[in-house]
Amino acid sequence: MRTIRRFPDAEAVSRAAGQDLVELAREAIAERGRFCVALSGGTTPRRMYEILGEAPRWAQIDWRRVEFFWGDERAVPPEHPDSNYGVAAAVLLRKLSVPAERVHRIRGELEAEEAATLYQDELARVFATPTEGLPPIFDLILLGMGADGHTASLFPYSQALTERRRWVVGNTVPRIGKSRVTMTFPILNRAAEVRLLVTGSDKAAALREALAGPREPERLPVQAVVPEGGRLIWLVDRAAAAELPTERPA
Known about the structure:
Blueprint lengths: L1 E6 L2 H23 L2 E5 L3 H10 L13 E5 L1 E2 L10 H13 L15 H16 L12 E5 L23 E6 L4 E6 L1 H4 L4 E6 L5 H9 L18 E7 L13
Helix pairs in contact: 1-2, 2-3
């Protein structure tokens, strides 16, 4: 199921995403004893991390029962300013004193395929799932979308788009000639909840094509995010939604 929620600005998107995370975490912990989330990079998630770290919101979750993962990572060490893990650790995780054993980072300092293999092994271990079986089901996966329609590090016309077996791969980014480590569609689409955060006028054309245009996932990889049994909610700000059809009054 796909839902589109519109907000006035990026701040409102970040706050809505943070509130969704809090509510889903509390439900999962109450029902199953833990909450498994895959975080994303980018400026909107960073602001969401800051919001989650504000009192009293941070106190609404037992963070010791949250397992943190990442949907993708750049080929940089954890202390590098471009590290998706590094941003979340600096802005949120250290502030909350999340136990180290609950934080599962992608080792961006390693060669991409090695890091991908290690990460798939880590996923299998935490979820107690064989690596050759079906991917595990995340309680929540946070994603963004680039102006070219990519999501996670699944870029247009890249090799990882056709991966159907592995959950995590190294993927070369054609326009920059570098590799990143990314989760693939088989695991992204197993999630119980997916939130796709899109903000900024530079995303307007891609968002219009992704939501209202023909299905071309090779060109617009974000179109391939279609949860098998879960729920997909797009959180978009006014600038990003500027070219979408106007909503009709209820």
